[in-house]
Batch of 2 targets.
Target 1
Amino acid sequence: MKRLGIIVPCYNEEEIFDYSKEKLTNLIKDLIEKKKISSDSFILFVDDGSKDKTWNKIEKENKTNKYVYGLKLAGNVGHQNALIAGITETVDLVDLSVSIDADLQDDINVIENMVDKFNEGIDIVYGVRNDRQTDSFFKKTTAQMFYKFMQLLGVKSVYNHADFRLMSKRAMQALTEFKEKNLFLRGIVPLIGYQTDNVYYARSERIAGTSKYPLKKMLSFALDGITSFSIKPMTIICGLGIFIIFASIIAMIYSIVVYFMGDSLSGWSSLFCSIWFLGGVQLLCIGIIGQYIGKTYIEVKDRPRYIVETFLKNKK
Ligand code: UDP
Ligand code: MG
């Protein structure tokens, strides 16, 4: 039988921890009873430098609950890095892993389905939301726009899939080979290859605690996703430049013709409008290029993605 590790990144999740550990423990016990996973399977709570009592709770639970493991990171490195930390630190311990957010907004009842598919030989199983009723109108539309835009830029990603997925050991190993610091896992995982499949579920609302993804973080995450996976924005800049050059040549020809017809175009406001317009275009383009240079700068420094403070496993 195969050993499962459920990886749960937690940042300031003291309010929901008890609920989540209870539900996940029951799930693990159930799967063990049904002989779908081995009895040394576990839930790994990755504490991403929480400032509240999350780690105390994990530590306490680990003493009494043999299914609960804890990984404490030395500081807050963000959801994606916390996830890769969990995967990297457990890849040698498990045969398969499932990653899920601490608030269990994703339906844990489909994990059994995922495990079944794994047992049939699938390496990566994506959890895919089949409705977004619980999301606000704003979150729904922005998320949709983001997916569409990514598609337009040629980034392969699974529609309506976040970071709820099952991975086999070899898929996890492959993932740890991707050394980039600008992590956008849902873009990277499809690059691994292997056989994949989807399970569908309805996403529920957060039961306690608050979302750790306010609009500002969401936007920077989306921007990260785009600039980490596609250099098309720079191609678009080139196209824009060529278009503006042609447009100005036409304007030049027009004003010369008008001049030789004994007339001249009057007014300086059109002149400074165009200067301001072009100034804006140039700044925007420099900004976009700057994004890529910034990315390169961060990659070149090659700093560690996370630092482990403590790893609590099962005593036995
Ligand atoms: N999270 C994390 N580090 C952070 C921010 C968030 O590990 O810096 C975790 C958080 O504890 C949760 C998951 O990432 O398990 C997703 O966050 P959240 O549920 O707040 O996002 P939302 O569902 O609102 O998009
Ligand atoms: Mg959530």
Target 2
Amino acid sequence: MEKILVTGGAGFLGSHLCDRLVNSGADVLCVDNFFTGSKSNLAHLIGKPNFELMRHDVTFPLYVEVDKIFNLACPASPVHYQHDPVQTTKTSVQGAINMLGLAKRVKARILQASTSEVYGDPEIHPQTEDYWGRVNPIGIRSCYDEGKRCAETLFFDYWRQHKLRIKVIRIFNTYGPRMHPNDGRVVSNFIVQALQNKDITLYGDGRQTRSFCYVDDLIDGFMSMMDSPDHITGPINMGNPGEFSMIELAELTLRLTGSKSKIVFLPLPQDDPRRRQPDIDEAKEKLHWWPKVQLEDGLKETIAYFRSAHDL
Ligand code: NAD
Ligand code: UDP
Ligand code: UDP
């Protein structure tokens, strides 16, 4: 049985990935320090013979024997990663060093959950993988953006220097069940506000855009990338190219929830990118992967989750 390590496996994406891997019959070891993740995301897996959960912080060395590593450990929402920015950089950078050191020792294949934030506030649109980005090195988002950029550097240096088998994916905004209700991300904020008939908080003029990928589609992408031939290292963009303004998202959420909430306009956070949309031609061509779930359908699933799991 293949032994697979998932770091950050108790989080939103990690828990869906653990589900998929456990169901495929792999022997899954999840490590997490529960900073933003929770055991409740994995409650249904605990007790299964091919699943193990370990409390561990990836900024410290980890000695285990595995065949594959998915490195997801890192808070992903601005509210959480800005709460302790020094720890965010340590998690991205020292966490990557430790997981790469582990991969080197046990000759494991290793995948990094990188991010569209490596493009910063981009000058080109949509973003292709060869674009180097426009990132502020000293702003409030830098701990995350630069941490993830440095992690990519480490992955490619371990690949060049130590011939590691690496896989780097740049994930664009992803949403779905098990998003943290208080993590401040736009999809969870709008759904929770709508279900409670509270004001919908639109930042700036609401015309900034994002592209939203449903979690099941992204997990398909994780699997395709990990199982791709060794010469496919990435970085490869993964996301849904459908581009929506935050006003459109607010209106769609109001319609799907049947909410009486009003939209209120609040100041735009510092360094908030104006537009973000993935170019996914590489993923289509090299991995035969592209997202299938429409925003409206994915939102319905996510709304149903928040209604039942959080009693809204
Ligand atoms: P999340 O916050 O739900 O999950 C992150 C997990 O990592 C949590 O369970 C947290 O407790 C754990 N963690 C944090 N620091 C740790 C540490 N030092 N040691 C061990 N565990 C630690 O976020 P998510 O949305 O599931 O994101 C998972 C990964 O995907 C992150 O690396 C994130 O940067 C990346 N990503 C996510 C998105 C998205 O839209 N969700 C977009 C781009 C990239
Ligand atoms: N490391 C780890 N688990 C292992 C092997 C290494 O956590 O199974 C850590 C180790 O603590 C080291 C880091 O990974 O700090 C980088 O390891 P590498 O072998 O690349 O470098 P070195 O040990 O020479 O610093
Ligand atoms: N946003 C918003 N209202 C909210 C939360 C976020 O208008 O309650 C906006 C935010 O300013 C940004 C977009 O929605 O322009 C996406 O924000 P999120 O934090 O989800 O992700 P990121 O900025 O990292 O893409």
